[in-house]
Amino acid sequence: MQVSKILVQLRGDDSDTDAVNLACILGRKYHAKIYAVYVIIVRLTLPMDTELKSETEKAENVLEHMRAMVESQSCQMEKIIIKTREAGQAIIEAVNEYAVDLIVIVINNMRRFGQFSLGSTVPYILKNAPCQVILYQQHTP
Prior knowledge:
Blueprint: E1 5-10, H1 15-30, E2 33-41, H2 53-72, E3 77-84, H3 87-97, E4 102-107, E5 110-112, E6 115-117, H4 121-128, E7 132-137
Parallel strand pairs: 1-2, 1-4, 2-3, 4-7
Antiparallel strand pairs: 5-6
Helix pairs in contact: 3-4
């Protein structure tokens, strides 16, 4: 496996630390640069150019916190904030734009109608990713 660029999706929750730590482990092993992406979803009822100040501030805070963690692990990270209506499509566009070799995504033990579900973003990424994808599920006791 040859990896020079790793994209990790951040969500602003506890899973971000695990995702970034995994990206750093791989980043050090392959001397890869990490692209940390925070996606802000713009509801259909709002115009795309709507200023979402609180969401943007949250994204910037999360990314800055993760940058400090990445740098403490001797890795390089670029911060990316994307405003979009569909997270999966936006992530794939970022993967293509930055020529990413590997995507790291944290998944939850999500249930929909009593069944395990990956939602809509993860299947879209798995179907359309032009590179390798690692899904990381946090252990929940």
